[in-house]
Amino acid sequence: PSPLDALKGVLNSTADLRLDNGRLSAERVATLYGVPLSHLAQWMGRSKQAVGKTPDADSLQAPLGHLERIARLRLLMKGDAEFRKWLRATNSDLGGESPLDELALGKAPALADWVEDILTGSPG
Questions:
Q1: pLDDT for 97-113, tens place per residue?
Q2: Phi, psi torsion values for 22, nearest 5 degrees
Q3: Residue 115's CB: how many other CB atoms inside 10 A?
Q4: How far is CA 76 from the centre of its chain?
């Protein structure tokens, strides 16, 4: 849970990642991030087949939640294209790695916490 979860504007910023049933969709997250579903599945430690078969499965909601928290950074950006550029750019705060590199290393929870610190102005 994040303190930002209760703020309507923050929740609305990632509403496009959810289906009508309220669940996060791996397909929608992959589209936003500009990556194949197979990469997203790897980041979550799942097979592409399992994620593709049920992209809104209950078992995916927690790992997709980290990716949703990262996507909230779009609040500070001028659209999804800028977010995708940020994902691919190296960042000195990440030891010269890009956010996508961090995701590939399984660091989605830490990256989500870091983004939350940026959004709340809290030191990381």
A1: 999 999 999 999 999 99
A2: 90, -10
A3: 22
A4: 15
pLDDT at 3 over 70: no
Q: What angle do CA 31, 118, 19 make, to 5 degrees?
A: 30
Residues 73 and 48: their CA atoms lie apart, in Å, by: 26
Residue 2: its pLDDT value, please?
63
The 3-class SS string of the chain reads: CCHHHHCHHHHHHCHHHECCCCCECHHHHHHHHCCCHHHHHHHCCCCHHHHHHCCCCHHHHHHHHHHHHHHHHHHHCCCHHHHHHHHHCCEHHHCCECHHHHHHCCCHHHHHHHHHHHHHCCCC
The amino acid at 57: A
- Check whether 124 has a pLDDT greater than 60: no
